[in-house]
What we know:
Blueprint: H1 9-19, E1 24-30, H2 44-50, E2 60-63, E3 68-70, E4 75-77, E5 81-86, E6 92-103, E7 106-121, E8 126-131, E9 134-136
Antiparallel strand pairs: 1-2, 1-6, 3-4, 4-9, 5-8, 6-7
Amino acid sequence: MALTTTVAPAELARVAVASYEGKTYRFSLANNVASTPLTALSTVANWDAIKLTGSGYTDKTGTIAAGSYDSTDARYELPQITATWTAAGGNWTYNTLYVVVTSGSTSTLHSIIVESPAVTLIDGGSITYRVTLFTDD
Length: 137
């Protein structure tokens, strides 16, 4: 006997709205080269301790807008978030973009994106990342 479970689009929407919509996001860059590298199980405080500083670096922040159900991909998608950084006053070297979602006073690590090999952004150079948050079954 085979069983198939399908999560209703309304449930995917409920979870996405509760988890993301109207919450604050923060994109940060880090050079994760410790002998024991950080992972998606590490805390936000651990990641923040190794994020880039200086040479014009700033985190990218904003508010997560309302999304909608995508029937083609069978998931509830939030609008794509675009973050662009430009090195100023020196080169940047990093290998991880990490995403934090904050609701009230609680900040949660959402995900990490690892670059291999590490990226060196030369002084005056720019890089853009586009991330889509979603819930699916």
